[in-house]
# Entry
Amino acid sequence: MRFVSWNVNGVRAVMKKDFVQSFHSMQTDVLCLQETKAQDSQVAETLADLKGYHLYSNSAEKKGYSGTAILTKQKPLSVHFDMGIDVHDQEGRVIAAEYDTYFLVTVYTPNSGSELKRLGYRQEWDTAFLDYLKTLEKNKPVIVCGDLNVAHRDIDLARPKANYNKAAGYMQEEIDGMDHLTQAGFIDTFRHLNPKTVKYSWWSYRAGAREKNVGWRIDYFLASQALAPRLKCADILTEIFGSDHCPVSLDLHD
# Structure
């Protein structure tokens, strides 16, 4: 099984930037999208030409904002939207698809914001999301993918000293949230399989950051410990453009 996760920064916008060609080049069984920035009907219309996949989308109440989607060749046993917590369920940030031997969850974690106005809310989210994952895990192992909006360690961003405790995505509170996920048994698959590899998944549109590779690794595949023997390959597909993020991938042994 091959999984790909991509924050497309607007599904309608990325469709104008060779998205279909990129999609086919990735040869994925499942594609998870974050920041679709469209209502469910608009997501379905935009992706209508991608044949052979079942589509599930979760849109924010606020139009043109947030949103997630899953395209999957194999029809899931069940699909669940949001976490069942009203304060966290307004922005279309979570979809969980159940398969025979695992749950696949895609998430677009709230950004703390340029002025850190949502840092407090972000901490509440992190706690609730971990509880949600552990509840799922009582039934089956869990794969979690998406834009977690945090660089976990110094190796995961180009300029750690300049950003630590100064910028959203590398505040200690956010790092703590990521620590809680890994301490709870969720493996950071890319770092597990590539301990010293420096690769980023997001670059600012400013100052030619992508050309200079001044980036951040904030997009992840996490997996329950029970899936460790099945982890085959985890990668960051930096050669694919169309968004300020690039896709990340995970291959599982059968």
